[in-house]
Recover the amino acids of this structure.
């Protein structure tokens, strides 16, 4: 409540600016908390109806109090649904192997050159296509399936700001029947 009041005072009563201030503050809080150790949490399992797709995920937080919090549990369950629906390969772009990044960048660069793009445009094309690549293969970069306006990573930052602890998506595994 005090943060809301301070944001309203700082924005001279403008609600839109106040929302922006609070979101920025949430990002600052999340960055500060990211260095703290998250050694509690939960493992959740989701099996899609029809038993053809299953997901196991580990999400860590700092205390068992947060791990038992309904909002945290719902967030983790929503991540399992996200993974089942979108099939990401990595948690974040930091997890993508460097050789894969270089290979994808090289392919996108060659495609742009083949389309007779000049050198100045090639770099921007590669950067744009790499952002799209990350949005496909990295869970935290994906648009959230229940609200396409937000990325999963932003939902994580918002949750960190609300619960006041570091939360980390540690790992996940997605199984699909007859997939190799």
């Amino acid at each position: 409540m005090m943060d809301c009041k301070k944001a309203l005072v700082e924005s001279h009563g403008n609600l839109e600016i106040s929302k922006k201030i609070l979101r920025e503050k949430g990002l600052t809080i999340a960055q500060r908390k990211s260095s703290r150790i998250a050694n509690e949490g939960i493992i959740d399992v989701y099996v899609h109806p029809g038993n053809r797709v299953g997901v196991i995920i580990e999400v860590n937080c700092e205390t068992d109090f947060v791990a038992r919090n309904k909002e945290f549990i719902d967030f983790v369950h929503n991540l399992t649904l996200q993974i089942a629906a979108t099939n990401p390969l990595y948690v974040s772009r930091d997890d993508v192997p460097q050789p894969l990044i270089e290979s994808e960048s090289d392919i996108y660069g060659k495609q742009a050159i083949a389309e007779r793009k000049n050198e100045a445009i090639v770099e921007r094309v590669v950067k744009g296509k790499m952002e799209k690549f990350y949005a496909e293969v990295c869970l935290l970069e994906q648009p959230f399936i229940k609200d396409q306006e937000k990325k999963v990573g932003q939902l994580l930052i918002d949750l960190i700001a609300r619960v006041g602890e570091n939360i980390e998506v540690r790992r996940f595994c997605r199984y699909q029947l007859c997939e190799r």
The mean pLDDT is 87.
